[in-house]
Amino acid sequence: MQSTKNPNKTLFGPAALVTAAFIGPGTVVTASLAGANYGYGLVWALLFSVFATMVLQEMAARLGIVTGRGLGENLRALVQHPLLRWPLLLLVVAAIVLGNSAYQGGNISGAGLGADAVFGDSGLLLAWKAHTGLNLWALLIGAVAALVLWFGQYKLIERCLIALVLLMSLAFIGTMLLTKPDIPALLQGAFWPVIPSGAVLSVVALIGTTVVPYSLFLHAAASAQKWPKATISTADALHAARQDIALAIPLGGLISIAIVSTAAAAFFGQQQPLENVTQLAQALTPLFGSAATWCLALGLIAAGLSSAITAPLAAAYALAGILGKPLNLKQPVFRLTWLLIIISGVLLSSLGIKPVKVIWFAQVANGILLPLICLCLLLAMNHTMLGNYKNSRWQNALGIMVLLVSLVLSGRSLALAFALV
Fold first, then answer.
1. What's the confidence (pLDDT) of residue 364?
2. Torsion region of 233: left, alpha or beta (phi above 0 gives left; psi -120 to 50 gives alpha)
3. Is the pLDDT of residue 65 over 60?
4. H or E element at residue 415
5. Which of 41, 79, 144, 339 has the most CB atoms around its CB within 10 Å?
6. Over residues 199-208, mean pLDDT
7. Closest CA to 391 of 85, 56, 2
8. Main site of residence (predicted)?
9. Domain 14-419 in CATH: superfamily?
């Protein structure tokens, strides 16, 4: 008999893993460029992305809690026809596993940039680089991510990522407060949607860095593990999951808004364009003092490290589920998947390799995958296996709206990918 008491009741839960996943170096760069180029004018796009993420992640969490399985396992059960099943599953593997391998290099590099800003180029780092040709920060960050996943149980990993999310919150929101944002302009940008000239791709990019398919795999599997059916009633688990989503996902949106605000305060209206995050950190010192630079650097370390943990974790959940393997951190396929992704990321980052072809493939695969996963999720949420927990009409309406947005994101991702050819 199910207990009505939640033994895992905490302030944050699996939704914090989603926040840790989407607030990575890519989001920091995208939000910084949006703030530098358009001021506070695109904050509304971040608010919409938070809303869309909450809609999809609630469905993913509900699916995991009610079925006790991850999204990969449910896709395997939902799509039975071989002409549809294997192409879809192969696409998921290509986009999630290979794509995350490519992006892992960016996660580790981003954390390394933050570490450089805090600690500088010490003699030890330079000597190591000269002797081995490898970046010591990349090795250290990769090693931390690997240790957390190798020795950690789910609860430990969750706590580590919650700590990183809180560090990002303090760092980026602290930086925003130090730079003294223009509150009226910020509120206008949040609640008066406009698209400035040339900002269409920036709008789609801001949404695309938040609404990502691999977070759905991560959230469904993590929710099934956080609230096992044998220890808590489904109704109580869903209540806890929705509270978790309502807290963690908007917090991630607030972090993104803080980054936009910081870049807007430092660069918007200036003649010098912003080209990278390092340049933003350098610009903060003369304008707002060294505290702002330290906050930004610590936030970048946390963003890179949190994504360096969640990207391989999500890939392992996806692949293990599709192959019908247990979602166990010590299961061989699960462990081998995240280990290979971390090693790939360390090598790409430490050797300075620009994996253009791999990233091109990942963009194409992800561009096709996002609307497909949204569609499959909607189909799963209307399946009879969910019983009374199927989507309601308004939940389907919201899901369809997000699906249409994902088609726009898909077009943008594919257009950028083919522009690289």
1. 62
2. beta
3. yes
4. helix 393-419
5. 41
6. 83
7. 56
8. membrane
9. Hydantoin permease (1.10.4160.10)
Domain locations in the chain as residue ranges: 14-419
Q: Are 8 and 244 in contact (CB under 8 A)?
A: no
> Would you state the structure tokens that stand for residue 344, as one six-digit string?
């790939």
Q: For residue 132, what are the CA distances in angstroms to 64, 114, 264, 339, 350?
A: 45, 22, 40, 22, 10
Q: How confident is the model at residue 155 (pLDDT cuts 50, 70, 90)?
A: confident
Kindly report the average pLDDT of the chain as a whole number.
83
Does the pLDDT at position 185 exceed 80? yes
**Dihedrals phi, psi of 121, to nearest 5 degrees:** -90, 90
Give residue for tokens 């506070």: 40
Spatial CA neighbour of 409 closest among 374, 357, 358: 374
Between CA 58 and CA 216 the distance in angstroms is: 9
Which of 310, 317, 403, 319 lies closest to 94, judged by CA?
Answer: 319
Nearest to 376 by CA among 87, 172, 103: 87
Average pLDDT over residues 50-59: 95
| Rg of the Cα atoms in the chain | 21
374-390: pLDDT as tens digits: 888 998 899 888 889 99
- What gap in Å lies between CA 321 and CA 301, rounded to an integer? 30
CB contact burial 148-168 (16+ within 10 A = b; e otherwise): bbeebebeebbbbbbebbebb
- C-alpha distance from residue 265 to each of 46, 258, 299 (Å): 18, 10, 17
Angle at the Cα of 350 from the Cα atoms of 359 and 370, rounded to 5 degrees: 25
- 72's tokens: 């990969």
